[in-house]
Automatic annotation (TrEMBL):
Protein name: ABC transporter ATP-binding protein
Matches recorded under PROSITE patterns: ABC_TRANSPORTER_2 (PS50893)
CDD domains: ABC_DR_subfamily_A
InterPro entries, A to Z: AAA+_ATPase, ABC_transporter-like_ATP-bd, P-loop_NTPase
Top-rank taxon: Bacteria
UniProt lineage: Bacteria, Bacillati, Actinomycetota, Actinomycetes, Micromonosporales
Amino acid sequence: MTIIATQALTKTYGGGVTALADLTVEVDAGVIGLVGANGAGKSTFIKIMLGLIAPSSGSLRVFELDPVAETDKVRARVGYMPENDCLPPDVSASEFVTHVGRLSGLPKTAARERASEALRHVGLYEERYRQIGGYSTGMKQRVKLAQALVHDPDLLLLDEPTNGLDPAGRDAMLTLVHRIGNEFGISVVVCSHLLGEVERICDSLIAIEGGHLLRADRISSMTAASDVLAVEVSEGTDELASALRTLGFKVTPEGRLLLVPLESDVAYDRILQAVADLDLPLHRLDQRRHRVAELFTAKETADV
Ligand SMILES: Nc1ncnc2c1ncn2[C@@H]1O[C@H](COP(=O)(O)OP(=O)(O)OP(=O)(O)O)[C@@H](O)[C@H]1O
């Protein structure tokens, strides 16, 4: 089921910065990573989905709704966890999340119950009556997640949810996001400049670079088998490389591996035969998988 669809979506800010350029994409339900380096246009995309800013041209629909014309309907179905710290320090998590529930239109008792439930889901149930000002960064991030969940949305938009967290905190947050997406059946868009993080927990990725769409696809398709064979023999690597070159293969050594492009249907059998002819102990022979990082240019990969 398509939950987000854009058509030539473009956003130009005053001053002439084009944050999103002609972006056309359809996104299915699931846990979706929105990745790109700092300044790629991720937050702009999220703000348009929430109806906080309007596109300069093109269109965007969330659950077939227009966030500009049908803002309330969109916000009723979407939860938002902003990137920056935005929590009042002098109220408890319970009070704050209840308040957000009330803002979403929940009656008093229901808001209190839903707040407790959301705080339990994020692992803050025991601590919910403490003032937020005394919380660690990881706990504050989880309060932001709980307030996004309180009105029982169908879609969560998380802007850099692991920001400011140490490695253990990052792991815990990613596990939580993955669990929310998979156990609660809520779709999640996780916005991050850290490709490795989102790759771990997402079903699909939208990769953007300088406001342009690089690719939107399921992770499994992005990491499909490539047409390069990795061959490893326990000994005689150089001997095998020259034998394969004599047979006309382009061989690239990489550590203990030889990488050989599979340019024809018979290439695989010929490589195997070459190993057998030299009587070398074959350790590994498998087709390389594409890596998601290949999407980005060398400069961009250094940033993500
Ligand atoms: N209100 C604004 N006015 C002018 N330019 C803006 C505004 N907001 C964002 N930009 C610019 O638009 C581009 C995209 O910004 P955006 O915040 O969407 O990127 P991002 O991928 O979310 O980056 P980050 O991870 O740093 O938040 C950047 O060049 C940014 O400087």
